[in-house]
Amino acid sequence: MGILNKNLSPRRKQLRETLAIERFAKLAEVVNSGLPTAVSILLVFIAICSFLFSFKTNAGRITYRPSHQILSVIIFVTVLSFAASVYIYRYNYRLIKSPMRVLSLVGLFLILLLLTKLSTLTPVSQYLSVAVAVAGAIIMTIVYSQRFALVMGIFYSALACLAAGFETDFGFFLTMAAGITTSSFMLREIRTRVKILEVGVFAGAAVFILSFSTDLFDSEFTRKIFADAGWTATAVICVAVVIQAFLPFIEKAFHIATSMTLLDYSDANQPLLKKLAMDAPGTYSHSLLIGSIAETAADAIGANGLLCRVGSYYHDIGKIGKPRYFVENQISTASRHDLLSPIMSQLVIVGHVRDGLELAEEYGLPAVIRQFIETHHGTTLIEYFYEEAKKKANGTGVLPPESEFRYPGPRPQTKEAAIVMLADAVEGAVRSLTEINPTKIETTVHNMAIKRLQDGQFDECELTLRELSRIEEAISKNLTAHYHGRVAYPSATPAKPSQPQHLLADEEEDEAELEND
Ligand SMILES: [Fe+2]
Ligand SMILES: [Fe+2]
Description:
The protein is an all-alpha fold. It has two domains: 9-256, no CATH class; 260-485 and 498-516, Hypothetical protein af1432. Helix content is 70%, strand content 2%. It is built from 22 helices and two strands. It has helices at residues 2-7, 10-32, 35-53, 67-91, 93-97, 99-119, 125-143, 146-164, 170-186, 195-218, 223-254, 259-266, 271-279, 281-300, 305-314, 342-362, 367-375, 383-393, 415-431, 438-454, 465-483, 507-516; strands at 55-58, 61-64. It has a two-stranded antiparallel sheet with strand order 1-2. A hairpin with a 2-residue loop joins β1 and β2 (61-64). α6 runs antiparallel to α7, α7 runs antiparallel to α8 and α19 (415-431) crosses α22 (507-516). Residues 316, 352, 376-377, 506 line the site of one fe (ii) ion.
């Protein structure tokens, strides 16, 4: 190797080094992508499933399958698991990035398959297996999405046929698939308390028809065929009732919130919202406005509008502790920041994110709502106080580090969080404009969107440029509608330009000042 290196020209050596660095960076990227962990979890899943399916229940007794069947089971499970993984890799790559989410999906599959396997010890295995499959489909639709539940449900049905010992029964597979597809299609959003029950009834009907028709194909019409179909449908409806009862636990286990829960949190009687309205009324009305703007913007790109609205209501709850330090709650023209140094002011302002998270913890807000508190300022710079600190430091010649005047982050991880971040910043900027008209609103919204984009605030949320432009359009329309009636009375005495109070509070006001400059 040493001899080879000696004969190389310096240019080739440099090229080799660059290539080696690039290869190392690529390797590090793969290692950090979560892919190796996901593959390891997949292999464990294949091993457990193969072991589980190597047994067969015969007249209430558990026996080993013959070796050729075991080999067949291993091949079947491996092929199906890899096919499902390719689907996830291609269409749900975000899931692979989070080992916890991969673990919960694999855990859910294993629990369902184990329940199916255990059901074979009972005489009603057929009904229970279908009901368990529908339960899985409902849970996957709630936790992930309709499309995901639909595709994964079909993979699950094939595995469940093995678990239930009906590996050659196509009618059983079809019955399960009917329950899974119907429940996934029907369950778009849970906005009412009886939604899952409704879904259960429809899935039960689909299961009844498929079970009845496939059994009828094999034999003459008997009462047993009718009764079997009826019992399978009843089991599906019962499982829907059970899921409805356990919904809060499912939400907690998977760190999600259904629309029903979100609607509960949007109620003005929620203790935290009541507290916000009482202690920081300015912030409360600001949050309501952001909620309306963000919901319209989210709907414009097909994101979750309700989540945006509810997240907006809570995004600034950290201001409850020190409401007077934020401009929207100031009663007099004098600002409390006058008495503080820029670094102290910056600490108070940044502190509202941390205080918000503490309050969210105390009041048990779900993680999906907490993300808005955590990320609505991302890692943006508090420009006004940074400029003030620079002015003060000018004499000393030592400029303050910019990082000290940035929010700690993280940056928005979802499209909904990015929308709320933009709506929040834009609302403050537009509110501070001296003259408000549709063109000025549009310009302010666009400038703010570009500023956030260039600052890298949308780098972690998969927002596309086309979506950003639709969001801008929706926010501009909404703000124009909100401010359209504001016409100055000719007789009104012009307001005395007092303290630049809009500069002294939250970050959005700092932005506004710079926009006006
Ligand atoms: Fe804030
Ligand atoms: Fe805000």
